[in-house]
Amino acid sequence: SNTAVEVDPDLYLINHRRFHTQQYSVGALRDMINRSEVELNPPHQRNESIHNDVWKSELILSNIVGMPLGEPEFDTKRMSNGTTVLRSLDGKQRITAVMLYLNNEFKYNHPKSIPAAMMGKTFDEIPPVWQQAVRNAQFHIKVCDSELTPDEIAYHFRKKQQSAKTTPGEKLNAMYHNRLIIFAYQLLSENAFVSACLEGKARRKGDLEMVVRMIHAIHVLDVNREKTKIDTSPKKLIQWVESFDDSWLTRNQTRKIAVIIVETFGLISDMDLRGSVKLAKTFILPIVGLFMYHSTADELVNAGVSEFVSSVLEDEDYYEDVGGSHSATKDRFIQIKQNFAED
Fold this sequence. Notes:
Elements: H1 9-15, E1 19-25, H2 26-34, E2 38-39, H3 53-64, E3 73-78, E4 84-90, H4 92-102, H5 128-136, E5 138-144, H6 150-161, H7 168-173, H8 179-190, H9 192-198, H10 206-223, H11 234-242, H12 251-270, H13 281-293, H14 303-313, H15 328-342
Parallel strand pairs: 2-4, 3-5
Antiparallel strand pairs: 1-5, 3-4
Helix pairs in contact: 3-4, 8-10, 10-13, 12-13, 13-15
């Protein structure tokens, strides 16, 4: 019989999402990166190096002696011209560390001072025999022969988060295709001083997390102006983004959000406050809530609110010490809301 066998679509998908291990030398991987055959900075990956030179040096030595720290993961993108590109899914920092050293961007600094011939030197400064050892060191990487969808990448990250500590900002960044995340990144790119305010406090994707929390606060008060609880746990914040209704993000809403966020950070950047307290969500969200509560269709940010916030929050003792209270944001919003009404 010539009857075609029906293939279960779920089984077909599983068979085309299997990962297998491939082995590349450091030198070969660098050549592939230079030929744009490896993509280390896709949208779902953070594009900064977060580890110090000691960590990078330890990783380099572990590769040289054949004891790599885990297997970086990639999927395979097929380009419009028919070529393929390995796209980083996880473990980018491990490969980046070695590539930065090959590019002479830091000096080798192993805590045990081994090998002595490399200590305190860039790649070009070490003896040729050690240069060859670094180039010949092997990376074992896991590769999926097909390209994962944005939803599959987000799912992949969530599963990893069950056994590895991952920041809310990284979880949000993994949902890079979500319209809300796209809009949040747009706000950050168009208002550089917002990121400047967060610099030093927000490692990895903390700036994204803060902006998304601010948008969430605006959404809560847009739906129910009388509500005072405008903070959520990281888990609930992620769930809110995942189930976000794009229809709420109208042109008027995006304008309102941008004005409130820019005005809030404009005020914060002018304040002389102790340490990094001004960058905590328990400090920022009550200001956003006050702006939202007193915004109208014609006046998105009330000038009186800006003047009041500037005057009271210059006093570092205006808020009581939250002491880890789960209701700190709510309590502070109620406080600043009542004080403004009295003022």
